[in-house]
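Cross-check.
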Amino acid sequence: MSKVYNQDLGADLCLALELALGGPVLRADRLPGGDTCCVWRLLCEGGRTVVLKTRAGAPPGFFEAEAAGLALLAERGGVRVPEVVAQGEAAGQSFLVLAYIPGAASAASLCAERFAEALAGLHAPAPGASGRVADNFIGPLPQDNAGADSWLAFFAARRMEPLRARIWDAGLGDSALDRGLSAALRALEKALPRVVTPALLHGDLWSGNVLAQAGGPVFIDPAVYFGHHEVDLAMIDLFGGFPAGFMALYQARRPLEAGHRQRRKLYQLYPLLVHLLRFGSTYRPAIDAIVRPYV
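Predicted model, tokenized:
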């Protein structure tokens, strides 16, 4: 049996980890954050350090989707991601083990030029349908990634409408919100460029999901799909925490078309609706402020 100093992991999970990692776990330290999953730093036999993510009662395919997203980022985007070491389930807990990234710091410490270069490379045009990857999750919420030929059709049917329905079911919706979101989608249709060529998106690109490291940025916790690259930029702008000057450096590599500032605000509705559903009405004023000019 693994000799873990922190017994919060439980005996069944410790045994599963020992089998998956080929040796005992010597120490487990809980890391901060992780409102969807519990995150741990594990010291293993031989001095190896890894990161463990666990979630009790995870929906089927939860960590498989994360592992697939990391692989797609590395393959199609050429960006750095942590290696997937192991995944499995024990005593009702799903788990994912990732390589530990030594010396990593917060996104605010990123080299702006390296981050701009990495993200612009990830956003290289990838002609074809929007979506077109296996369904996955943004935080704990499912994302339908079935392909659609039109980016607007995908964004409306696969992103906005499912959240609107869930918000109503949760008792957080009303007719004013419905009118506002419908008006916002009409405004987005008018503001879109004539042609939107999909790019691979990280899909949940806030500062907590990018680590600064000596070799360049490391992307974690993806919610990938193919879509308008401005969606990632909208989330960056919404939550902040990235290095100053990044956006100008990005635009030097991947120029943005006219109307991008208006579209950025409209794209921020998706993560705000996610937060409204997860954390409650605190996020409603920000949503109302975006849709109000279009009602």
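The CA atoms of residues 25 and 44 lie 4 Å apart. The domain at 107-294 is CATH 3.90.1200.10 (Aminoglycoside 3'-phosphotransferase; Chain: A, domain 2). Passed to J.P. for a second look.
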